[in-house]
TrEMBL record, chain A:
Name this polypeptide is given: Cell envelope integrity protein TolA
Biased composition (Low complexity): 147-156
Lineage: Bacteria, Pseudomonadati, Pseudomonadota, Alphaproteobacteria, Hyphomicrobiales
Domain of life the protein comes from: Bacteria
Chain segments annotated as transmembrane: 12-32
UniProtKB/TrEMBL annotation, chain B:
Native species: Microvirga terricola
Assembly information from the UniProt record: The Tol-Pal system is composed of five core proteins: the inner membrane proteins TolA, TolQ and TolR, the periplasmic protein TolB and the outer membrane protein Pal. They form a network linking the inner and outer membranes and the peptidoglycan layer.
Residue ranges constituting the MotA/TolQ/ExbB proton channel domain according to the UniProt record: 112-217
Protein name: Tol-Pal system protein TolQ
Chain segments annotated as transmembrane: 27-48, 137-160, 180-202
Length: 363, 239
């Protein structure tokens, strides 16, 4: 069909549509000139923040275990005299995972090209010896050559002296030449000896380094690496007694259950309660340096005393001590049951026996 | 390769504006885009023209029917319409009346098959009118059905192109892949932009044509009934 390019009022479609599209495109160019950016996608690294407190609470156990057991113990799947910590598993035999290279091994790897540049790849002490011997031979050769030259010169000089009239002068010249040759040979030998000593020292240093690296390298690691064509298998860890429910923790963790700071807080709390119950003798309150009673109290889970409190120190020299100690024990009995915050309940083992100082100055 | 290194090594600044998308596209994709844009212009031209034409035709039909059924004599109406080119119902009426007149004005009065002749003339006129209304609607149908495919063709060519570029640059980071694919998809977007109004308008206009056609046919039937009654009366008078 032929588009009518002249404007026709009864069929204005082409012009209206054309103008409309031009306007639309212009609008889109202005309005959609820039697409909004998606937020910068940064790869997330899972980071867990643990406090000093938590770090000090890491107990002995297994990383994959569900929860911390009352008595933190590592997982043990078989009973054996030797304690071995391995991946959990019930396989028939052990196929260890490829051992990791320690960091200093990598460093040694990097320096390898330098080592390979060194002329003797054979054990370094031997080449040094060989070199020394070679050196000696070279010196001897040089000396022998010098001697031969000298001899030949002497013979020639004699012959010439006999043959010609100016023999003496020439003989003198020859002798001089001989002396010179000798000196030169000696100087050469000296230079060579110095260079050799240097090379030897270098070789020795290298050998020492290599020996050091070799010491670090565990040969069993190499064997493991060579054997390591199969999937990692484990027959399970061993220990004195089987423990199928390991505690949550790490193989190296050794912390007590209650962290030191929590223990301090609990002790402070209990000591505060006891001091509130305590009526120290009036004399001790006014004394300049009153005696301090150290009392061991044993507690039940509900905070009540499980045993009579006992005074641990004995300062019979001080006349006030007896009364202070007695009053402390009375206070401990009076305060029973002590209020223990619920958050310390899981750690009963850690606070079932506490040592509290009763200091009259604190009241 | 570390993605950070790649990002630093190849700071390919891609212009992601609409014009940038068009300009950086492959030659074939550009052609497709231009073609689709032209198709969109054309299809909207047709839509506007047809909408106006149908509105005008409908108004003309209403007016004609008012006049026709107002009791005005057919002879007078014919005389007033004869002078100018008629469309729609008027065209049907004028064609039938012309045939009628011709049959009476000749020397030999040919009544015998006048009714049949008038029917034929009516049919032909209706067909011509419908054709006039219907013309160019097929273009809309074509754009509506082919537009997405043409756009898809552009997209496939664009994506092929960008994938070969990726293979050459040996870098599969999304930042390298994305601009090419965005360019390619732009072709499909334009295809859909042209096709969707075309399909909707085609369906709408087609149903309008159907309505107008049935209206024409209805009028033609009525008019032919009137004329055949007249013919029968004349035959009876003549006999």
């Amino acid at each position: 069909m032929a588009l009518k390019l002249k404007f026709n009022s009864s069929e204005p479609g082409f012009w209206v549509s054309g103008v409309g599209h031009v306007l639309l495109i212009a609008g889109a160019l202005i309005g959609l000139s820039s697409f909004h950016k998606l937020p910068e996608a940064e790869e997330g690294i899972p980071v867990e923040v643990i406090t000093d407190n938590q770090l000090s609470q890491i107990t002995k156990g297994d990383k994959t275990a569900k929860e911390v057991q009352p008595t933190p113990k590592p997982r043990v799947e078989r009973v054996a005299d030797k304690v071995e910590e391995r991946d959990p598993g019930e396989d028939k035999r052990d196929t260890p995972a490829p051992p990791k290279r320690p960091d200093d091994m990598k460093v040694a790897d990097k320096e390898e090209p330098v080592a390979s540049q060194a002329p003797p790849p054979t054990p370094p002490s031997k080449p040094a010896e060989v070199k020394a011997e070679e050196e000696r031979k070279l010196i001897e050769k040089a000396e022998a050559e010098a001697l031969e030259q000298a001899k030949a010169a002497a013979a020639k000089a004699k012959a010439e002296a006999e043959a010609q009239a100016k023999a003496k002068a020439e003989a003198e010249a020859k002798a001089k030449a001989k002396a010179e040759a000798e000196a030169k040979a000696k100087a050469d030998a000296e230079a060579k000896r110095i260079a050799d000593a240097k090379a030897k020292a270098e070789a020795e240093a290298k050998a020492r380094k290599e020996a050091e690296l070799a010491k670090k390298l565990d040969l069993s690691d190499i064997r493991k690496m060579l054997d390591n064509k199969e999937k990692n298998q484990s027959s399970g860890s061993t220990g004195a007694e089987v423990n199928k429910a390991p505690s949550l923790g790490t193989q190296t963790g050794t912390a007590a259950k209650l962290s030191p700071s929590m223990l301090d807080a609990l002790k402070g709390d209990i000591s505060q309660q006891l001091h509130n119950c305590w009526n120290p003798p009036v004399a001790s309150q006014t004394a300049a340096n009153p005696p301090v009673a150290t009392v061991r109290i044993r507690l039940n889970q509900d905070g009540s005393l499980s045993d009579d409190p006992a005074v641990l120190n004995n300062n019979s020299a001080d006349t006030l001590f007896r009364s202070v100690a007695d009053s402390a024990i009375r206070a401990a009995r009076k305060c029973s049951p002590l209020k223990i915050n619920a958050r310390y309940m899981p750690y009963y083992e850690d606070w079932k026996s506490l040592v509290i100082n009763f200091d009259p100055r604190d009241v | 390769m570390n993605p950070v290194d790649v990002a630093q090594a190849a700071p390919v600044a891609h212009d992601m504006s609409l014009f940038g998308l068009f300009w950086q596209a492959h030659f074939v994709v550009k052609l497709v885009m231009i073609g689709l844009l032209a198709a969109s212009v054309w299809c909207w031209a047709i839509i506007i023209d047809k909408t106006l034409l149908f509105a005008r035709t409908k108004r003309a039909m209403d007016r004609f029917e008012d006049v026709f059924w107002s009791g005005q004599s057919l002879e007078e109406l014919f005389r007033s319409l004869q002078s100018r080119p008629a469309t729609g119902l008027a065209a049907v009426f004028v064609a039938a009346m012309r045939e009628w007149k011709r049959s009476f004005e000749g020397s030999g009065r040919s009544f015998q098959s006048l009714a049949q002749r008038i029917d034929k003339v009516l049919d032909v006129t209706i067909q011509r009118e419908v054709e006039r209304l219907d013309s160019r609607l097929m273009i809309l149908a074509s754009i509506g059905s082919a537009g997405p495919y043409i756009g898809l063709f552009g997209t496939v060519v664009g994506i092929m192109n960008s994938f070969t570029a990726i293979a050459a640059s040996k870098n599969t980071s999304l930042a390298v892949v994305a601009p090419g694919i965005a360019e390619a998809l732009f072709a499909t977007a334009i295809g859909l932009f042209a096709a969707i109004p075309a399909v909707l308008a085609y369906n709408k206009l087609q149903s309008e044509v159907g309505k107008l056609q049935s209206r024409l046919e209805g009028f033609a039937d009525e008019f032919s009934a009137i004329l055949s009654r007249q013919i029968d009366e004349r035959i009876a008078l003549a006999a």
